[in-house]
Specification:
There is one protein chain. The protein is mainly α. It has a single domain, classed as Vanadium-containing Chloroperoxidase, domain 1 (Up-down Bundle). Helix 2 crosses helix 7, helix 6 packs parallel to helix 8 and helix 7 packs antiparallel against helix 8. Its main location: membrane. Its EC number is 3.6.1.27. It is found in: Cell membrane.
Length: 171
């Protein structure tokens, strides 16, 4: 258990550093928009557009991959039951109300990296933009105060791993 306590201590320190930024309020405003861009309905729209333009294998990889990613995400979320920063830290209030109780892993980050990986496979010219966006989604969740840094790192790994599996199997 000592290693988990050490990881949590480093995580809290990194989170506190983010929250101590001079322009934290401005970062939170921008973070809301970035975080919103990673909400689930946009991913459904992406899959529909891909399907309509003849990328049926990629659209299938997105659909089936999200079933895998969301299943693993829920298993991890319910298994670890890590409190969100507002519940774990004294005198801290997040900028938004999260959609669920636990923070590990970050679902927004997982979804963003999943989509970025899948789309990069078909459209490598936009890879840099997609990964910058996915990284910004992860950072936005920290700056909104709803995730610790390791929540977003593990979300990125989960999304990337599920995408690699789906692309390898279906595309």
């Amino acid at each position: 258990m000592n290693i988990l306590q050490n990881i949590h201590a480093v995580d809290v320190h990194a989170f506190s550093w983010c929250m101590a930024r001079k322009h934290r309020i401005a970062l939170a405003r921008v973070s809301r928009a970035i975080s919103f861009s990673a909400d689930g309905p946009f991913y459904v729209l992406i899959a529909i557009v891909l399907w309509a333009f003849g990328f049926s294998a990629l659209a299938s990889a997105l659909a089936l991959g999200f079933l895998l990613e969301r299943s693993l995400y829920l298993i991890l979320k319910r298994g670890f039951k890590r409190n969100r920063p507002a519940d774990a830290l004294d005198n801290f209030k997040s900028f938004i109300v999260p959609s669920d109780q636990f923070s590990f892993p970050s679902g927004h980050t997982s979804g963003a990296f999943f989509v970025a990986y899948c789309l990069c496979d078909a459209f490598p010219d936009v890879a840099l933009y997609l990964y910058v966006w996915a990284s910004q989604v992860g950072l936005s969740r920290i700056f909104l105060g709803v995730h610790f840094p390791t929540d977003t790192v593990m979300g990125a790994l989960l999304g990337t791993g599920c995408a690699a599996l789906m692309i390898g199997v279906l595309v």
